[in-house]
């Protein structure tokens, strides 16, 4: 098994980060990846903040493993999603 400093930093077993693919990285995929020891990442895309909040809460209900949320800078909801990440204490945030 490969173990890197990234694993220690993120609290994961495998140095694998799932892509935050908009409309594909649903809670089901994120939970499966995180439970497998990698980092599952919710893809916010340009989805409305209320949907992303639902996704975050579903992930938190289904796993205690680390997960993340990807926020694309083109989203009209960037600030709202950033605020959501802070409020919901999302452990890892990526941007693109």
Give an overview of the whole structure:
With 96 residues, this protein is α/β, with parallel strands linked by helices. Helix content is 42%, strand content 14%. The chain is built from four helices and three strands, in the order H-H-E-H-E-H-E. The chain has helices at residues 5-10, 27-35, 49-62, 78-88; strands spanning 40-43, 67-71, 92-95. It has a three-stranded parallel β-sheet. Strand 1 (40-43), helix 3 and strand 2 (67-71) form a beta-alpha-beta unit. Helix 3 runs parallel beside helix 4. It starts with a helix and ends with a strand. 29% of the residues are buried.
Question: What is the strand and helix layout of this fold?
Answer:
Elements: H1 5-10, H2 27-35, E1 40-43, H3 49-62, E2 67-71, H4 78-88, E3 92-95
Parallel strand pairs: 1-2, 2-3
Helix pairs in contact: 2-3, 3-4
Q: Write down the oligomeric state.
A: single chain
Number of DSSP strands?
3
Q: What level of helicity do the residues show?
A: 40-55%
* Alpha-carbon Rg, integer: 13 Å
Short description:
The chain is of the alpha/beta class.
Features:
alpha/beta, 14% strand
